[in-house]
Structure formats: structure tokens, C-alpha cells
Amino acid sequence: MEVLCFGIAKEITKTSSLQVESGVIQTVAELKAHLLSQFPAFKDYFEFRIAVNQEFADEEQVLNGSEEIAIIPPVSGG
Amino acid sequence: MADNIIDIQILAEPLEVSNNYDFILDESCGGINVFIGTVRRWNKDEEITHLDFECYEPMAISELRKIADSAIEQFEVKKVSIHHRVGIVKATEIAVIIAVACKHRKASFQACEFIIDQLKKDVPIWKKEHLIDGSYWVNSRP
């Protein structure tokens, strides 16, 4: 699955569009755990959220791999 | 909500308050409130050379629309215009403008404050502060 990265997430992953092997990932919580294991620097940002199809997603939300998925680090607009 | 009562834009060029004002002007409203967020030169003791705003645009527009819908429902806002800048923004330049028109003044103050508070919580926009000796993403400084 493709995961869009913005702000600090783009710097941590060094890409704006991360390819994640989706075989073992079925939920948002599992995606977050995977990201934390691949990129330990995310541990400094406990607040990072996941958006699915441009909506904030719950941890339990099931992913089928065809959604538009994005890492949303702590926002700082305004 | 119809597009003639909500105006949301993410813009890479300098923001002009008159654009928001012209959009929200309404014969039924006696209270217009405008919040303008500008870039300041100093954050605590550090001097900022410029900010760089990044945005997840389709989601930012959809989140801003939800906030606008909620403001219309809660505070009887008749018209609302929200413009946010992206890219490089220098000190004294405008980062965000929120303009609302209500029948009376009290609701317009409340609506404006509600919108900027929600924007800072949930809208996927990020700013990087560039200082004389380095840079970092705001709210993401370990």
C-alpha cells in the first residue's frame, strides 16, 4: 500500500509517498505499529494520526490496501 | 452547504483581506468578524527568517469545510470565508484569514474563535520555522 507523508513524516521516511508491504497489515493500528518498527524516530511523535481517504481514522479501522492513506503528524496551521 | 455561503481556499500567493470581506458581506448581517494570523519575527527568544507551510490539500479543504459547517450550525453564521497560505511566508505576511458574517456581533466573535481553534487542532497543514541557525517543524520538535 502507498502511504502519503507530510511535514516531519516526510523527513523521517525521506519520501512523500512510502510503499508499505500490505500483506500483514489489516488495520490502522497495525499500520502504525509497522511504521514505528520501520522508523523508530516516530516514537518521538506519539500524536501522529492516520488518515484514510482524507478522513481521520480510528485504530480499529480495517484497511484493504486500495485506500488513500496518509500519516498526519501533529498539525501546525494558522 | 452551498458554495455561495462557504469560501475555502488554500493559496500559494499573498492573501488579501478584501477578498474574504467581499465574499461574506451580506445584507442580513450586522456583525462581521475577521481574524488575521500573521507571521511574527520572534518565537520566544529565537528569530524567525521565514515559515514554510505544507498542506495535504484535499483533506485540509474537507476538514475546513466541516469546521465551517459546524460554525454555521452552532453560531448562526450566514457566510464564512477561510483562506490559508502555503509555501514560504515571511514576517508580517498573512498566514491565514478567517472572516465570518453573522446577524449580531457576539456570534461573530465566537464563530471566529471556534474556527481558528479547530483549524489548529485538526486541519492537515504544517509549518516549518526557519531560524537564523536551523529549522524545525512546529509541534514536532522532539
Number of separate structural domains of chain A: 1
Number of strands of chain B: 9
Which residue ranges of chain A are poorly predicted, with pLDDT under 50 across at least 5 consecutive positions?
none
| Succession of helices and strands of chain A | EHEHEEE
Average per-residue pLDDT of chain B, rounded, comes to 95
Largest sheet descriptor of chain A: 5 strands, mixed
Backbone CA Rg of chain A: 11 Å
- Gyration radius of chain B, rounded: 16 Å
* SSE succession of chain B: EHEEEHEEEHEE
Summarize the largest interface: chains and residue counts: A-B, 19 and 28 residues
Using the alpha-carbon principal axes, give the shape of chain A.
globular
Q: Compute the number of helices of chain B.
A: 3
Strand content of chain B: 35-45%
| CATH-level-2 architecture of chain A | Roll
Backbone structural class of chain A: alpha+beta
The CATH architecture category of chain B equals Alpha-Beta Complex
Number of strands of chain A: 5
The helicity of chain A comes to: 10-25%
Describe the protein in words.
- The complex is a heterodimer of chains A (78) and B (142).
- Chain A contains two helices and five strands.
- By secondary structure, chain A is an alpha+beta fold.
- Chain A has one domain: Ubiquitin-like (UB roll).
- A five-stranded mixed β-sheet of chain A has the order 2-1-5-3-4.
- Chain A starts with a strand and ends in a 6-residue tail after the last strand.
- The mean pLDDT of chain A is 94.
- By secondary structure, chain B is of the alpha+beta class.
- Chain B starts with 5 loop residues before the first strand and ends in a 5-residue tail after the last strand.
- Chain B has one domain: Aldehyde Oxidoreductase, domain 3 (Alpha-Beta Complex), CATH 3.90.1170.40.
- In chain B, the strands form two sheets. In chain B, strands 3, 4, 6, 8 and 9 form a five-stranded antiparallel β-sheet that branches. A four-stranded mixed β-sheet of chain B has the order 1-5-7-2, sandwiched between helices.
- Classes of the chains: A alpha+beta (78), B alpha+beta (142).
